[in-house]
Structures are given as C-alpha cells and as structure tokens.
Specification:
The protein is an alpha/beta fold. The protein is built from seven helices and 14 strands. The strands form three sheets. Strands 1-2-3-4-5-6 form a six-stranded mixed beta sheet, with helices on one face. Strands 7-8-9-10-13-14 form a six-stranded mixed beta sheet.
Amino acid sequence: MILERLEVGNLSTNCYILGCEETKKCAVIDPGDEGERILDLISEKELQLEKVINTHGHYDHVGADSFLKQKTGASVYIHRADKALLENDPINKMFGLLDHTPVKADVLLEDGDDIIIGSLTLKVIHTPGHTPGCICLLVDHYLFSGDTLFAGSIGRTDLPGGNYQEIILSLKNKLAVLEDDLQVFPGHGPQSNLGFEKRTNPYF
C-alpha cells in the first residue's frame, strides 16, 4: 500500500493519497484545497487517480473535489447524509470559502460499504456527530478517522448538523469495538493509535 499525507488549506486539513502498489490506482481522501499540489504528488508517485473520497462535506475537506474531478475524471464519494453539504454552495459559504465550486457526488456511501482501489478494500464506517454523514475508513491496520476522532480529542459538534450525543455514540459503538493496534490518521493534527486513544482520550 502506498500512503502519502499532505496538509492543505487554511485549516491544515490532512489530505491522504492512498494507492495500490500492484495496479498504481489511487484515491484521495479529503482533498480540502491545493488541488495542483495533490496532483503533482500523484504524478510524482506515478499513480492514477480514480476516486475522491470525502469523510464529510465541510469545505476544508472537499475544497479541491471539483478541480480533481475536472482534471482527472475521478469519481466523488460521500455519505448519503452529507450529499447536500457537499453539493450546496451556500452551506459551505458559511464556513468561509466564498469561491468554493460545488461538485456533484458520483457515489453515495452507506455504512458497511466497500470501496475498491486496485487490490485494496476500504470499509466505510458511518460515524455521525461532527456532521450527519461523517465516515471513517478502515483498510488493513489503518483507520482514516476524518473529523470524528483526533489525537486526544474529537471533532466539534457546534456547527449546523453537529450532535454531541451522536459523536459519543459513534465512538462507543463504532470505533471502541475495533482493534487496538489500528493506526489512526485523522482529518487534522498528528496520527495516533486506537488503543492509546481508548485509554487516554477523555471522550471514549
């Protein structure tokens, strides 16, 4: 598996490029901004972008979706419950990106779906709370946790669509049951380990 991380945009969003060693096909998780820079790294690694996967619909995670889709023809994925957040420009203007270009989702995800990238299979875990359609993605021993789980913290729930009770239930019912040895790659900040978060994160 090929894994690259870029910090992009004015909120330092973690954008991940996830590629298959065998087929050189790849996906980008949360391309919040700086589409040219993302494409440059994909080209440097000699990968072929097939999928753009959003862990949720906030502008700092979807800002380069339209650019990447236009340049490569990649399909855009998001959970069904965040479809409107992705596609409705006025909603994202609330979060400060006045020139955001909305994009239509090609694939609407549900809990338990599999996303195939070459020989890799990403399992979709619906973890509402930060937004109604927040997801985490599980592949091998890696958990891409979006804005559901951070190192030592969780995503904020005071924005429209956020729900504190739901995010706590997502931690308890969806993430706490996963293996402790999973490496956690969040939407912002440093990576962590799920076992460590279970023991030390006050929200678990």
